Amino acid sequence: MKRIIVAFLLGSASRVLLASALVHPSGPVKAKRSTEPLLAGAEIDPAVKAMLAKSCQKCHSENTDWPFYSYIAPMSRLVEGDVSQARTQMNLSRWSDYSPNGPRQSDAA
Q1: DSSP state letter for 40
Q2: Number of domains in the chain
Q3: Pairing of strands 102-103, 98-99
Q4: In this structure, what DSSP letter does residue 100 have?
Q5: Do the beta carbons of residue 76 and residue 25 sit within 8 Å?
Q6: Is the Cα torsion angle 47, 50, 51, 56 positive or negative in sign?
Q7: Alpha-carbon gap, residue 65 to 30, rounded angstroms
Q8: Largest CB tally within 10 Å, which of 1, 12, 55, 103?
Q9: In-domain check, residue 107
Q10: Domain, as residue range, for 69
Q11: Do residues 30 and 61 touch, judged by C-beta distance below 8 A?
Q12: Residues contacting 2, CB < 8 A, separation 6+
C-alpha cells in the first residue's frame, strides 16, 4: 500500500512539473527575435555600443542567449519574467521605436 501511495505522489508531481514547463505566464518570450542590429539608427560611440552589447543585451534585447536553466521549470518562469520586464523598460533591439522623450506611441491610437 505504501508503494502505491509513493508511486501516485511521484506520478502526480511529474505531471505537475511537465504542465508547468509547458505553460508560461510571461507568454512566448523566447519566440521574439529581431532582425535589426542592436541600437539600429543610434549615433553612439563604438565603445559604449560594445559595452551595451556585452552587458545589457542579454535581458534588454531580443538577441538573448538563453542559459540552459531557462528551459527548465520553475527557473524558466523566473528568467523569462525578468527578461520580459527588462524588455518592457528598454529594448535595444527596438531602438528606432524610441524618441528623446521615451517610447513612441503607436500611430493607430
Answers
A1: T
A2: 1
A3: antiparallel
A4: T
A5: no
A6: positive
A7: 10
A8: 103
A9: no
A10: 2-96
A11: no
A12: none
Is residue 50, in this structure, part of any structural domain at all? yes
Dihedral sign, Cα of residue 96, residue 28, residue 90, residue 64:
negative
pTM: 0.65
* Residue 40 backbone phi and psi in degrees, to 5: -60, 130
C-alpha distances (whole Å) from 28 to each of 1, 67, 91 are 43, 16, 16
Q: Are 81 and 51 in contact (CB under 8 A)?
A: no
Grid cell 539600429 is found at 40
pLDDT string in tens for the chain (109-residue length): 888 998 989 988 888 777 766 666 656 667 667 777 888 878 889 899 889 888 898 889 888 888 888 877 778 888 888 988 998 888 888 888 877 776 665 544 4
Q: Which amino acid is at 104?
A: R
CA count, 13 A, side-chain hemisphere, 86:
19
> Which single residue is written with the C-alpha cell 500500500?
1
Contact (Cβ atoms closer than 8 angstroms) between residue 83 and residue 29: yes
